[in-house]
Amino acid sequence: MAVSIIGAIREYLNKCELLSEVPVKCRHIDWTDAESESYGISADGDTTLKKFIDGHSKRCYAFTVYFNKVSVEDTNRLEAAEFIERLQEWCRAQTVSKNLPELPTGKTATKLEAENGMLLEFDKKQRYGKYAVQFRLIYMA
Q: pLDDT, tens digit, for every residue of 74-90?
């Protein structure tokens, strides 16, 4: 079991069939390799949505998955956009089937949402595009 939420998310995403195509050495926290197809997970914040009288709370852990894809031609960009759609659909399916990250002790994931998939920028050589998908993990603590 992971000792942190970001660690749990990393373990969870390593099992995603779409992201498992990326070699382990190209999976990062807080950065991506601009010269290769890679992805990185970046924590965006942890907020309380609701506090309960018993001391528990409903919380939202926001994070973004950034990934680099070859984006030289329109066909490459179309493939990247389709990848974003498949990743968002995978996320929805995981929530429906209750296949969610196993969080550290005292925390239980209840929902995972993938939002706002987009192209952010191109590298200096205009070979790779950096794409992002923003996620919200709802959990009880």
A: 787 788 888 889 999 99
Looking up tokens 């709370």 gives 57
Burial class, 135, CB count within 10 angstroms (exposed 0-12 / middle 13-18 / buried 19+): buried
Reduced to 3 states (helix: H, G, I; strand: E, B; else coil), residue 23 is coil
Q: How far is CA 99 from CA 14, 67, 91, in A?
A: 14, 23, 9
pTM score, whole prediction? 0.86
Q: Render 67-134 in DSSP notation, one character per residue.
A: EEEE-SSHHHHHHHHHHHHHHHHHHHHHHHTT----PSTT-EEEEEEEEEEEEEEE-TTS-EEEEEEE
Q: Give the span between the Cα atoms of 62 and 68, in whole angstroms.
A: 20
- Residue tagged 């209840």 (tokens): 110
More confident residue, 137 or 119: 137
* Tokens 């030289």, residue located: 72
Distance between first and last Cα of the chain:
16
The answer to whether the CB of 97 falls within 8 A of the CB of 33 is no
